Amino acid sequence: MSRTxxxxxxxxxxxxxxxxxxxxxxxxxxxxxxxxxVIDGKLLDNARHLARLHRSLGELKIPAPDTxxxxxxxxxxxxxxxxxxxxxxxxxxxxxAAERDFAFPKNAQPGIVMFTQAKQLRDSPQAKNGIxxxxxxxxRWKRRDIKTVGLLAQSMAKQxxxxxxxxxxxxxxxxxxxxxxxxxxxxxxxxxxxITRQLGxxxxxxxxxxxxxxxxxxxxxxxxxxxFTVAEALQAQEAFITSASTFVWPVISIDGHSIGDGKPGPxxxxxxxxxxxxxxxxxx
Length: 284
Ligand code: PDD
What we know:
Blueprint: E1 4-7, E2 10-13, H1 24-28, E3 31-39, E4 42-43, H2 46-60, H3 68-81, E5 87-94, E6 111-118, H4 125-129, E7 131-137, H5 152-163, E8 168-173, E9 176-180, E10 184-188, E11 194-196, H6 207-218, E12 223-225, H7 230-234, E13 238-243, E14 247-254, E15 257-258, H8 266-281
Parallel strand pairs: 7-8, 7-14, 11-12
Antiparallel strand pairs: 1-2, 1-6, 3-4, 3-5, 5-6, 8-9, 10-11, 10-13, 13-14, 14-15
Helix pairs in contact: 6-8
């Protein structure tokens, strides 16, 4: 069934949506994006996603294509027009179309596209059964805090993980885990302390990560924001990932080694429940 998508001010059937071959998102990956999850037809953590969108745009000096009020209006209209109850709204802002040149064009008009994706988020088998992770070298650029559409390294890491019989990749740099191919990485040590890499230019500042850290504080769970090694992860009691498209998924093995007892752990399970409950309460 054809979706209605949004392209630069217009709602159109997906097969009629077009952008220029000179669009810099296409030619240079000169574009940023956000993925907001939807449950019961409502957007979760969306204001924070829009705040991060502005940060990404600012770092790349791309002007905002529209006001947040209008963006939210379009997101909601897409949910409604596509009768989306559970899944995500993807939104991408590109610097726009211009003659191909490495320098930023002076007068390009930023473009914005949005579409919905139906997906089962709450009752996912991965949340219930946990996932296998394979570690891969992190071959990305050095501004991973900007959420650009330059995702080929992540795509390669994910595919290599699938080829290795895992579900996702954790990327590793100088012996330390940076993050997952499209999620943030966490471990829980033998003392019950949650460990996740500190923010910086080397990982994406996950919106779900931030919400989970708030919940750990409220739950009085000890937290260390620091880099951890693969060896440390293999010794962990539990491991899990967070993102808008997974919320919290337990990790039950890394490179074929079981984590803890090889079953989804209680900390990940509890945080997942809490996250969904609190995010839904504030959903819009
Ligand atoms: N990915 N790290 C990376 C590299 C990511 O691509 C993502 C999100 C995250 C988690 O961020 P958040 O909690 O804000 O979703 C961390 C999205 C879901 C994607 O590319 O589809």
